[in-house]
């Protein structure tokens, strides 16, 4: 019965095996796994194409692991045999699965047999300790509530229900603290519906509540390295699984040739030394072989003596992943993109459907939409208030969708689900809002939540990090973000005489128009649409890889700016267009952006853990560039080495060799590809263009300080709202931010 709605809409669906049956996991708890259970996950893109994941906890039973394998096979059949299948094991998940959960994966003790259920409640009777590991792929593992599990090199979360403490060891670095705070915020927003208070705790400064929960503090162990990765052997093999699923070697090592794969057979590509193998299903292989593909992979792991943590990917012909194709020196897809006017996408097995070109469809297998959860199509009731003088000032509905960087806003979204009215409060904070407005937005969010009986889900949104669902609330119009200023009457700052808006469509097909901080030709991007307003004219510039939906969104931006717009195509720009931008300059013109066949990949190079090179899972953004590391960006026809200002000498000196070895060892033959080294703060447009709405001023504000400020503002202001404001108080207009904080500090001291 659970398959009836499976794969009907884009996004992520998660089921747990309970009494050998499938039970859905609530969206708010996606990414949280009980170690004694097995799970089935389905990710659907808008193409549609599908990924099926079987997740096995370390303590799940044989019956549960067998049941999830059967359900995965049945779901594959139900979806026509076209999905890519993954076998995932706790602590060794694929980057594909980890990418669905940018706030990290949480492992909880127990399972069905212990009576633990996935239920979203406001129950504050929680007491657990989470050990946070990972700089790129974040994992939070529940451990015993004991000081003996702490170490100086990591972050831990002491979850006491109403209060969530992020404990930072004296040896952990800034980036690890930032990632741990994402887990803490996720617990507050999703597991507690925004009603827990967050606290930052440094080693040696533990408050009484933490000591009471954990007992007298003992000696803290020194930091430990992450798991070491075996790089001694990198040979791969390919085997033919034919007939009665007998396995025979076809080629002993890579690089392989695509002609080795016969359409009548199934094959195993052995990459076991890297803890993953691939099972490729030929389109003409008999049905029994195709259905037995996953079990054949599991048997192959046993026969080879590989770790039972080895990942397995089952790939039907036509749905091969980038990782699989890189082992072939001559791989060519059946119907590759023919240019900016046409694109092809995989539908059912061995069938390629031609569809109108749409940039979002090219990116539709990304994980960002799944992370944020599209609760509906955005057609519910929307109410928006601007934070003004400590109060909620209603925004005129005609201005819905416009957000100014100098403001904070509260967006109340109401929709019906299962016959009941549900609510979400989005608190949007501009990057140039004042501390008083930031504080007031926290207070007013709590007050609005309380007025509705504590039922809404609260989501804090920082300018530039808008989730797709928020972007979809404006009746088909784009979300327009102004770089600064305010929408309050009489309070607007003078806008620049020349303005440039960058329009891009998200993976959920919602569009966002972001005002670029400085109108310059270097901000253009061949994959997108831009609206340029100068004192003399308005232009709509279409890059060669832009979509029709992005052009439609540009009309709304022009309607707001006023005037009649001239349409300009890339490479056919008139002189007055370049003149308005201050002259011609280099910008992002990568052919890969116009014709995305291979998605870009971002890696971190760090000697701070045992894993020297680690890929950033899922969709990456500018905040994934760790300032204390060296990063490698692979855009297929370009390789970039990005050097963070705080990277140490070992990383700076060793990363170029890693990048060269990475390119030279690629079986698809990219040896000799130029490698460009750039430094933080001096990024050229050819690099910055891979990150939407690149902000050159991002690092002027410490991201950790801003996150810590978010924790402090929302936690302390929630406390203040409860203890200092009676029902007669209507605004914070009489209280400055410093006064509120003083009250809180005094009360804590008292």
TrEMBL record:
Localization in the cell:
Cytoplasm, Cytoskeleton
GO MF, one term, reads: phosphatidylinositol-4,5-bisphosphate binding
Q: Where does the UniProt entry say this protein principally localizes?
A: cytoplasm
Name the CDD domains on file: gelsolin_S1_like (cd11290), gelsolin_S2_like (cd11289), gelsolin_S3_like (cd11292), gelsolin_S4_like (cd11293), gelsolin_S5_like (cd11288), gelsolin_S6_like (cd11291)
* Annotated GO CC locations: actin cytoskeleton; cytoplasm
Q: Name one Pfam family in it.
A: Gelsolin
Q: What positions does the domain Gelsolin-like occupy? A: 22-97, 138-210, 250-324, 392-471, 514-554, 613-687
Name of the protein in its database record? Scinderin like b
Name the lineage.
Answer: Eukaryota, Metazoa, Chordata, Craniata, Vertebrata
